[in-house]
Amino acid sequence: xxxSSILSTAFIVFLxxxxxxxxxxxxxxxxxxxxxxxEIFWTTTNIGISTVYNISPRNLNTSVAHIFGLxxxxxxxxxxxxxxxxxRLGLDYGLTDRFSMGIGRMTFNKVVxxxxxxxxxxxxxxxxxxxxLGVKGSLGISTLSGIxxxxxDRLSYFTMLMLARKFDRLSVQLSxxxxxxxxxxxxxxxxxxxxxxxxxxxxxxxxxxxxxYLPIIGNRNQGTSDEMAIALNINTGGHVxxxxxxxxxxxxEQFIMxxxxxRFWEGEVRFGFNINRVFGF
Length: 281
Known about the structure:
The protein is mainly β. The protein has a 12-stranded antiparallel β-barrel with strand order 1-2-3-4-5-6-7-8-9-11-12-13. A hairpin with a 2-residue loop joins β6 and β7. The longest helix is centred in the N-terminal third of the chain and has 23 residues. The radius of gyration is 25 Å and the shape is globular. The relative contact order is 0.18.
């Protein structure tokens, strides 16, 4: 056989073996046979209370929360829209698939909050881990000027557990929580304890109804009431809009517990909305 024929034959054989050789060099990745349950809640905050939902690694969640005045003010106050609104702008960044950090600023008391969230357990699709368990901690700093307070007197601290489970389209979360204020005035408590109760029901892939209730356990600030809220969630694919009615005009759990004076079932309700958008990096 001529040398050229031998080389041609060898070249053809080599080409035929390339797919097998390439496949042999690919890294072998084990298939995920028991993934975590997705979207137990749709956003990091149900209405005013944080959820077990965490940001994916290298993703940034931007949020705008806006709550107006009481709707029982009537048309003269355009059902609360003419009254001063409390706004919070926030950023949360996913460092891992279980841990995220965030920062935000609220109009009332000009509070800056720094927070972190960690998912200890993930609910799995097979039910081997039947619940989702997370923990959140945050630091609040009032930046109001002209009030003559030291930095330490401006600080508040907050921690909570988040125990959640998704039942088909219904998600439920229980959240025992505690807040501590370094400085309080007469009639207020340094330490407040509450139990957040959250629900979310998916009507479709685009719409969901959610609600929350935050009763105070033990001593409370004078004249305050338990917060309650209901919301319609709209998932556009890029954003999640929450349109809600709440008895509280405050953002962040420790300030809701400390400052809510209105009663939902007595018509002392405010209109508000939240907008959440996730960017991938």
